[in-house]
Design goal:
mainly alpha, Arc Repressor Mutant, two-stranded antiparallel sheet, 2 strands, 8% strand, BfmA-like_N
């Protein structure tokens, strides 16, 4: 039984036999009752603003072009954010870190060879 419609009575519709057979096959594929399948189809057409007389092809192409335009808009916004916000911020942070880093002394090493131990010793020249 259809949920929410248990107490409603049935109404007869005049449908050709071939159309009724086709509709019943479709209802079996959908695993719904005939009433629920018909209600689902009507709500689909109403919600999407589609008329059964219109071709769906141009509508889908229109939707696809609209989605592509929106995606391109999002990409443009992200590039603008990267250009005007992210890159300058990264540059400022890098310059702060470069200034904050202590200067490293250049190590000049002198090589001494000890004759007694035959080892190499290094020392820092200041």
């Amino acid at each position: 039984m259809d949920r929410g419609y248990e107490k409603e009575r049935f109404e007869k519709l005049g449908i050709k036999v071939s159309v009724a057979q086709k509709f019943r096959q479709f209802c079996k594929k959908m695993s719904l009752s005939q009433s629920m399948t018909l209600l689902l189809m009507i709500e689909f057409f109403e919600d999407n603003g589609i008329s059964p007389h219109e071709s769906v092809g141009p509508k889908m192409q229109t939707l696809e072009s609209l989605i592509k335009k929106r995606i391109n808009g999002v990409i443009a916004i992200m590039k603008d954010i990267e250009k005007n916000q992210t890159k300058p911020t990264v540059a400022m942070i890098q310059s702060l870190f470069q200034q904050a880093e202590p200067e490293q002394k250049k190590l000049l090493l002198e090589k001494e060879i000890s004759k007694e131990k035959n080892t190499i010793r290094f020392r820092e020249i200041e």
